[in-house]
Amino acid sequence: MALHDIRPQQLAQRDLLAPQPEISERLMKAMDGVNQRFGSGAIKLARQGGEGSFAMKRAMKSPSYLTRWQEIPRIRLG
What we know:
Radius of gyration: 26 Å
Distance between the termini: 72 Å
Low-confidence stretches: none
Largest sheet: none
Shape: flat
Helix content: 10-25%
C-alpha cells in the first residue's frame, strides 16, 4: 500500500480466499450449537462428504462428438 492510498479499514478490498477468523469462529459456534441441539452430525461441512457415494446419472448424457471418432454423425448421400 502506498502512502497516497490511505483509506479507512472498512473500505479496504479484502482477499476473497484469505481466512477470516472472526467469521469462521462465529460460524463454528453456530454449527456447534445446532449439533448440540439436534445431535452430532446434524450439520457437516461439504468437504466431510455424505452418506454413500456420488455418481453422475448418465441417462441424459450428451454424445461426445468432439472427443470420440465413433460418435461423429455420418451423412450418406444417395
